[in-house]
Amino acid sequence: MDELELAPKLAVLKALAADEHVTRVAERVGLPQPTVSRWLAELGEQLGAPIVAKSGRRVRLTRAGRLLAEAATRSLAALEPGLREVEEELDPEKGRVVLGFLHMLGRAIVPELVRSYRAEHPHVRFGLVQNARQAVVDKLLGGEIDLALVAPPPSGPEFESVVLFEQPLIVVVPAGHPLEARSAVRIEDLAGEDLITLEPGYGLRQITDDMCAAAGVTPRYVFECQEIETVRGLVAAGLGVALLTHAEFAPPPGLRELSLTPRTGRIFGLTWLADNPLTPAVRAFRDHALRTHGVQV
């Protein structure tokens, strides 16, 4: 039996189990009485046994009909919570937004973005997923998250991205390092230096690799980390230098931040799948994020 054909008839069977009167059942489910009668006859034909029998001006369920009605009632009971979840998901005031983002954005940028949105939409729920850039992009492609806030935003026809903001890149060195006396540092000046960076898959690592390759520098990575603050700490301990963005909070003692020339920025973008329609709640939060960063919606 085709499940798609059976599904709309479950409500009729459930109603018939409660009131064995075809006319009243038809009114309850909002269908013409002839349609209900035809469905009942078709179900009997598909099963090879009648599911209703006439009893005066009413009908009664046969044993097969009763068993099928009980199964329909159980199926609808299991389906109803899911339907309520779908209704909430489609309500921009009650839906759920799953946002993936880089670890460094969890200190201030994402919390403030969520706080400002929930101030106007207090019943919207959030799932917050922090990971490396490539892991976040993979989760977006896999349908595990709705939106990705990463740097740099991914390219390709499967994505739609909008740049939200840019952070200048700098070189950080330990106090007393020979480069400390310079007013600005070039990537070429890092040739031969012990470099501290993030692991492959992180956006800043990709940027560092690309900039070194463009400058003809073969990077000598001595430490690969998972957190930017760990990179800062290792640099402050005198274990190497790094290409980073300015610290959001006071950097550790013993660290010096130097300008990079030519000036280069790390671009952060909000990304979603081009062919995946956004739910109202996700679309509303996306538009809020764009407006918050001065992007015309």
Topology, pairings included?
Blueprint: H1 3-6, H2 10-18, H3 22-29, H4 33-47, E1 52-55, E2 58-61, H5 63-89, E3 96-101, H6 109-118, E4 125-130, H7 133-141, E5 147-150, E6 159-174, E7 184-185, E8 194-198, H8 203-214, E9 220-225, H9 228-236, E10 242-245, E11 255-260, E12 265-273, H10 280-292
Parallel strand pairs: 3-4, 3-5, 7-11, 8-9
Antiparallel strand pairs: 1-2, 5-12, 6-10, 6-11, 6-12
Description:
Helix 2 packs across helix 3, helix 2 crosses helix 5 (63-89) and helix 3 packs across helix 4 (33-47). 39% of the residues lie in helices and 24% in strands. It has ten helices and twelve strands. It is of the alpha/beta class. The chain starts with a helix and ends in a 5-residue tail after the last helix. Helix 6 (109-118) links the parallel strand 3 (96-101) and strand 4 (125-130).
Give a summary of the structure in a few sentences.
39% of the residues lie in helices and 24% in strands. The chain is built from 10 helices and 12 strands. The longest helix has 27 residues, at 63-89.
